[in-house]
């Protein structure tokens, strides 16, 4: 009887503590969701502004080219316009990569919170499709929990690769315009522009992959999976936030 009485006297305090813990975890979860949503909205706006600038720049080049009969002045105008577009594109690409890494941060944080939810109520573990593990395997499951491995189409169709492709084209056109202004023959203009554009694209993908892998080398999870695979080369690009 004394033990039962002690247990009953402890239960209200334990229940209150668990309720407070659940409330604090839920508050933090909603804060992370709000921050993640705000970040996504901001980067989508940046991408839309950049694409609008690209469209306006190309249209202006066409109009000025027809009006000036593609004279020497048109070459200077083309370099100026393409230079501005390329600069804004590179800045937008930097922001997209930063947001991808920030989104990774939010996903890791929410995976930790799910682990805390399961500690409070182990019975909910089977209902969670997103992961409770704050490591690479857990992030991969949370980003794409329909299959064990995210398909290549997820990366090929990502906003990151899309921005890289547009910027590669803009930089290729800019370099081509500069080489053309220097008096190079047409085939050399096309060749140099294509090579520089492709080189920028390859470098951008490599840079994003290097940053992503570098993060996992120094990161130490608090709740790792039983067996955590290292990021595979074909899946080592920064995770693209779900837009």
Question: Can you walk through the features of this model?
Answer:
By secondary structure, the chain is mostly helical. The chain is elongated and about 85 Å long. The longest helix is centred in the first third of the chain and has 67 residues, at 2-68. It is 76% helix and 0% strand. It has one domain.
List its traits.
243 residues, mainly alpha, 76% helix, elongated
- Tell me about the largest β-sheet: none
Radius of gyration of CA atoms, rounded to a whole number: 26 Å
Cα distance spanning the termini? 59 Å
User: What order do the helices and strands follow?
Assistant: HHHHHH
Quaternary organisation of the protein chains = single chain
Overall structural class, as computed from helix and strand content, comes to mainly alpha
Count helical runs.
6
Beta fraction: under 5%
Q: How many domains in all?
A: 1
Overall shape: it is elongated
**Care to count the β-strands?**
0
Helix percentage: over 70%
Give the uncertain stretches in residue-range form: 1-9
Q: How would you state the average pLDDT, rounded?
A: 85
């Amino acid at each position: 009887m004394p033990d039962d009485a002690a247990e009953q006297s402890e239960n209200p305090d334990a229940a209150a503590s668990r309720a407070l813990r659940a409330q604090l975890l839920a508050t933090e979860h909603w804060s992370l969701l709000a921050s993640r949503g705000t970040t996504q909205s901001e980067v989508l706006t940046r991408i839309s502004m950049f694409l609008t600038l690209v469209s306006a720049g190309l249209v202006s080049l066409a109009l000025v080219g027809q009006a000036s009969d593609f004279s020497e002045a048109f070459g200077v105008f083309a370099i100026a316009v393409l230079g501005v577009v390329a600069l804004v594109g590179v800045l937008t690409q930097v922001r997209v990569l930063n947001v991808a890494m920030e989104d990774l941060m939010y996903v890791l944080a929410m995976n930790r919170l799910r682990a805390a939810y399961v500690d409070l109520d182990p019975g909910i573990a089977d209902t969670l499709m997103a992961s409770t593990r704050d490591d690479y395997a857990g992030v991969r499951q949370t980003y794409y929990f329909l299959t064990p491995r995210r398909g290549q189409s997820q990366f090929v169709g990502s906003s990151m690769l899309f921005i890289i492709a547009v910027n590669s084209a803009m930089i290729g056109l800019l370099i081509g315009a500069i080489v053309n202004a220097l008096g190079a023959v047409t085939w050399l203009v096309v060749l140099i522009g294509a090579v520089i554009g492709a080189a920028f694209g390859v470098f951008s993908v490599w840079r994003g992959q290097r940053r992503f892998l570098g993060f996992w080398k120094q990161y130490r999870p608090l709740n790792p999976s039983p067996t955590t695979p290292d990021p595979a080369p074909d899946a080592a690009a920064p995770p693209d936030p779900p837009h």
